[in-house]
Amino acid sequence: MKKQMRHILLPLIATVMFIISACAVSAEITSVKVSQHSIKLNWTIPSGYNSRIQVKWGRYSSDLNHTASLSGSTKTYTIKNLGSTKYYYVNLYCYNSSGNYMYYTSPIRIPTAPGKITGFKYNFGSNQKGFQASWRMPSGDYNANSQILLKTQSGSTVYSKSLGGTNRVSLSSFAKYNRVLKAWVRAYIKLDGKSYFGPWVKKNVVPGPIIGNMTLLSGNRVRIPWSKVVGATGYDVYLSKSSSSGYKRVKSVGASTLSTVVSSFAGSQFQKYVNYYVKIATKSKYGRSQVIQGNYFYIYTQYA
Questions:
Q1: What is the DSSP letter of 63?
Q2: Which of 87, 108, 219, 259 pairs as cysteine with 225 (C-beta 3.0–4.6 A)?
Q3: Residue 210 included in any domain
C-alpha cells in the first residue's frame, strides 16, 4: 500500500512543483513613459516564452478591452490616442511556442500626463505692489500639481515655483520685477521619480507703474510722478472724482516720461475740497496693463 501511494504522490508532487515554478516566472514591465495621450512601455520576458506577446489595456482593471498583438521579439510598445489626466490599467501577456501557457504581470495602473490648464487670470494689489494669479486645473482621474514661471520677454526666468495641487499664487513683492513679463503655467504629475507635464499656458503680464508722491503746485496744477516699467512704450494717465468709476484719460506720454503735470479734469479747473483719483496704465507692444486703483490727491482751498 505504501509503495502504491508513493507511485501516486511522486507524479502529483512533480506536477505541483512544475506549476509553482511556472507561476514564479513572469514578464516584467521595466519602464514607463507617459505623455498627455500616450503610454510607452518597455519590458523583459522569460526565456522560452517569446512566441507571441499581447499588451492589453483599459480604463478599469476588470475590463482590459483593448489589445495589441505583437511578435515575441518586441520589447517596447506605445499605446496611443488616450485621454489626458486619466488612469489606464495595463497588462502584459507572453506565450510559449505551444501557446498553452501565458505568463503575465498583474494589471498596473498608469496615469497619462495632465491636460491643459484653463481660466488663467491675474490681477495686482494696491498700487501694483502685489500680484495674484489663479487658474483651473485640468479635470480627470487625479489631482495634478502645478508650476508657474515668470519670465522676461527675452526668456530669462525671474521667478519659478512648483505649487503642488494649488491653483493660485500670490506675490507680495511683485514690484521688485518692475518690468513687462510673461507668465508660464502648466500642470504636472510625478511618476516613479519623474515629472510628466501638460502643455504650457502663457500670458503677458503688463504691470502698471507705481505712483509716487504727488505735489500740489500753484495755479491749480498737480505733478504726478511714477516708476519706470521696463518694456513700456508709454503711459496713459487717468483721473476721476470717484475711486471706482468715471475715469477719463488726461495725458498720454512716451516711455521716457516718468511724470506729468495736470491742471484740469473733464474740461474744468480742479474744484476745491475734492479728492481726485489717479490711475496710470502701462502701454507695451505686448498689450496694456490692467488699469487699477492707484492713488489720489486732494485740492486745498489755496489752490482752487
A1: B
A2: 259
A3: no
